[in-house]
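Bug #77: duplicate submission created two jobs. Keeping one. Sequence:
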Amino acid sequence: MERQLILDLPCRSAQGRDDFFVAPANALALATLDRPDTWPQRKMLLIGPEGAGKSHLAQIWADEHGAAVIAGRALTIAAAPALVAARAVVVEDAETIGGHPEAEAALFHLHNLAQAEGADLLISARTPPRDWGLALPDLKSRMQATASVRIEPPDEALLAAVLVKLFADRQLMVAPALIPWLVLRMDRSLATARRVVAALDARALAKGTAITRQLAAEVLDSLG
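Kept job's structure:
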């Protein structure tokens, strides 16, 4: 029997507001981002673990406010004026700039320019600023003084909804009963949910079979 050829094609993830499942773990974050007029000094830190939905939530905010979006390590001082000209800016993965002098200086400059121009500034990170390893004292003090809102670890309802969405993004049909079965047996992490669905997709393609409970058990065992 010939081995099936597998093409690693990217799946398109739905990132609109209608695709964002509101649960106790993220309701406060969503409500906070919906009211930038209440942010102290028009800036906010969005904190949450890997795969918690920070990028999805930040993209919703960016789309609805016409914000410029940039990754923390991609920041440069020269890019700051164009970003602030959008009147709203999203800096993602800000924890990655720690220990990189040019990126730290760029975020410090962007922060000050946004304040001077009255632009809204949303910064996302996996951890609080105290854990970023910042070397620039002025940036460290400004980030630690910035108001923050956290996305908490997902509950069972949120994890189930995310699994449904991840399967749908890949156009995969699974038995409804498989979702709660997975939720009870996997780590309660949205990052884990992404890995599980990706692994199930790949293994089902390799075997030329449907996604079953037996296949899911094999994947969970392989992921440890």
